[in-house]
Design goal:
This protein is mainly alpha-helical and 137 residues long. It is built from 6 helices and 2 strands, in the order αααββααα. It has a two-stranded antiparallel ribbon with strand order 1-2. Residues 21-82 form the HTH dtxR-type domain.
Length: 137
């Protein structure tokens, strides 16, 4: 197979790097939204436990999310999402559900579909997601 045009190949790699950067944001806002919905609050320690990282790592990521206008973090209060954060969490949840539904329709077991969807959902184009949604019915 021949190598693609250098400019096209560069565009592909740039797209992947951009997806990796937004992946962390999407995972964090989605988990914060889920925790708030289930428990009424999301705390740094909850995020650290569920992501399997240190509270320092969570604090650094939250600082970036605050800078990007996705999360509000007030002293002595739990975390909350801004309107932009809620919109991102909702979009991320929809993407996740589409991918899981597609994988289940293919016959993938629920546990594997959940695991695989966690990585795929961040890297698929809108076109591919529409096709997956149409396929699963």
């Amino acid at each position: 197979m021949a190598l693609p045009d250098p400019g096209e190949q560069a565009r592909r790699f740039i797209k992947v790097r951009e997806a990796h950067r937004s992946e962390v944001q999407q995972d964090y806002v989605e988990l914060i939204a889920d925790l708030v919905a289930e428990r009424g609050e999301a705390r740094v320690t909850d995020l650290a436990e569920r992501f399997g990282v240190t509270t320092a790592t969570v604090a650094n990521t939250l600082a970036r999310l605050k800078r990007d206008g996705l999360v509000e973090d007030r002293p002595y209060r739990s975390l909350s999402l801004t309107a932009a954060g809620v919109a991102m969490a909702d979009a991320s949840r929809r993407r996740h559900d589409i991918v899981i539904g597609f994988l289940l329709r293919l016959g993938v077991s629920p546990a594997v579909a959940e695991l695989d969807a966690e990585g795929l959902e961040h890297h698929l184009s809108a076109e591919t997601l529409r096709a997956m949604q149409a396929f699963r019915g």
